Amino acid sequence: MARITSWRKCYIGIAALIFGLLASYYSYQSSTYRKVKLNLNVIDLSKPGNFVTPKTTVHHFAMTKVSKTGSTTMFGVLARRIIQYKLNLVIPKSGAFLFWNRPNSWKIGPRSGRAEALIHHSLYNKTMMDEVLEPDYKYIALAREPVSWFLSAINYYTPYLRKKKLLGHNLSLHQTPSADYVVTNKNLLYAPKSFGNAQTYFHLVQLQFTGFDYREKDNLSAINQHIASYISNVDVIILTEVYDASLLILKKRFSWSYQDIFYTKLVVGKPKHGPPISEKNRKTLLSPEVNLGDKLLYDRLNETWWKQPELEDYYFWDEVAYFSQINLNLTKVWCPQALKSYNPVTIPESYWHEELTLSLRFCKLLIRFSSKKYKRLREYAFTKR
Fold this sequence. Notes:
Elements: H1 2-36, E1 61-63, H2 71-84, E2 89-92, E3 106-109, E4 117-118, H3 126-132, E5 138-143, H4 146-163, H5 179-183, H6 186-189, H7 205-209, H8 220-232, E6 236-239, H9 243-254, H10 258-261, H11 279-285, H12 288-305, H13 316-341, E7 345-347, E8 356-358, H14 360-368, H15 373-381
Parallel strand pairs: 1-4, 1-5, 5-6
Antiparallel strand pairs: 2-3, 7-8
């Protein structure tokens, strides 16, 4: 009897140990899950949180607009702030591209003196930007995963390629070439471009926008040195794949408000979904022989993005989900209704912000600015104030 009791105690002890280990494991998994999943039920959004506005607000900024990275949407966000706060900007006198080596093709306006903002297509040139912009400007970098960028670029540049008669005779008049077709056609993959800032349509375009000399495209040492130097001067990274989260980090770093980062998604060109790229050609596109520079650039920016201190906030991803939903409501429902009823939009106080009142003028800039964005900003810059 004593032996049975002893064994029973042993079993009970082992069971208790296993139960304790399982409880600890699932407690950890639950905690990890809450950090990763966009779960708004973990907090009461109707109650104010511990939001503190930093003392220093960034008023001067630069973004070198990179094609097919969500840059047109970002242009709308920053252009709205320029107009609202009457900032001085450097702007091309015509078109959408700013060329630093053609000083007669751009100007600073609406006032003389240094520029407070740069948001147009241009190659990153720290020497020129330091000379033209206010000394305390902050730099915003844009990037997109190379394969995703490539697929979007094919859709966008097809009309230009057809006009240049680079598509061959295998495609119908309105057919967009598949990604596999472009990857396996070197005349297309490396096709030179005669307009804009980059020298090519598809090859190392993102790297070129960082100011990299395309003539050094096969020099790995030069690529690595350039990327390291470039990233050391970046203040905020906007990744297309985590766009809303990137905007929230910008808001926190710059001490801006929610009103400053609300956006309307602006799409350049009509999206067309062609055949997906094959795994073989995906690997080819990302191979060192084809696209080493853009892959290295994105990998470094992506790695840097995910190490940012803002992501350590326990509720960061919950705030991302909240912002995404509020922004969607604002652009699709609230602002359109406000412009019809002539009543401003009021967003109740939440865990992350005080009550927000958005004027009709704000809604007009948010919803209607997109149609003639470049012309509207040029009119602003060229009008003396």
